Inverse folding.
């Protein structure tokens, strides 16, 4: 395992992005259309759209790169999986309305991404965190794998259920 990133980030509107080969085009719907999960959008080819429980403030985020599927860590409250492509051999984290962060080296290719959330509901109820200490934390695990449908592995919070319902509604034209 290689830890590519591990620190607090600033979120606004509960959003952050892992740029895979481009930048967010401004259409949140394009990132989730056709998916069953609503907290890690992978429908747009150039990025992963990450939803947080907190609207504004600091959240903790760790991004790990594995050689193979690391297995499911059931200690997290929310867990989803998506597939993505890293065509350039690097990815970059971007906070809402911010420049891309420094590139993180990953071999070019097809990946499975497992997004984990802890205390998403508590952070959503808080809305804004004015301290440097995160309420909610997230982990994104990447490993080489062929494309597969997204899936919800674990959902425990109302806020995650809301976003999953929103994403499913996109396919139904809601």
């Amino acid at each position: 395992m290689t830890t590519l990133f591990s620190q607090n980030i600033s979120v606004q509107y509960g959003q952050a992005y892992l740029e895979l080969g481009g930048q967010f085009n401004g259409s949140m719907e394009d990132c989730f259309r056709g998916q069953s999960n609503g907290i890690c959008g992978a429908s747009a080819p150039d990025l992963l759209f990450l939803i947080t429980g907190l609207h504004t403030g600091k959240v903790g985020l760790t991004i790990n790169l594995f050689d193979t599927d690391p297995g499911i860590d059931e200690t997290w409250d929310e867990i989803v999986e998506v597939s993505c492509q890293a065509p350039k051999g690097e990815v970059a984290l971007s906070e809402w309305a911010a420049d891309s962060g420094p590139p993180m080296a990953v071999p070019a290719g097809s990946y499975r991404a497992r997004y984990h959330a802890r205390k998403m509901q508590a952070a959503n109820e808080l809305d804004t965190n004015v301290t440097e200490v995160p309420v909610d934390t997230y982990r994104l695990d990447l490993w080489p794998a062929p494309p597969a449908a997204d899936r919800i592995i674990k959902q425990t919070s109302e806020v995650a259920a809301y976003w999953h319902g929103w994403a499913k509604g996109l396919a139904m034209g809601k």
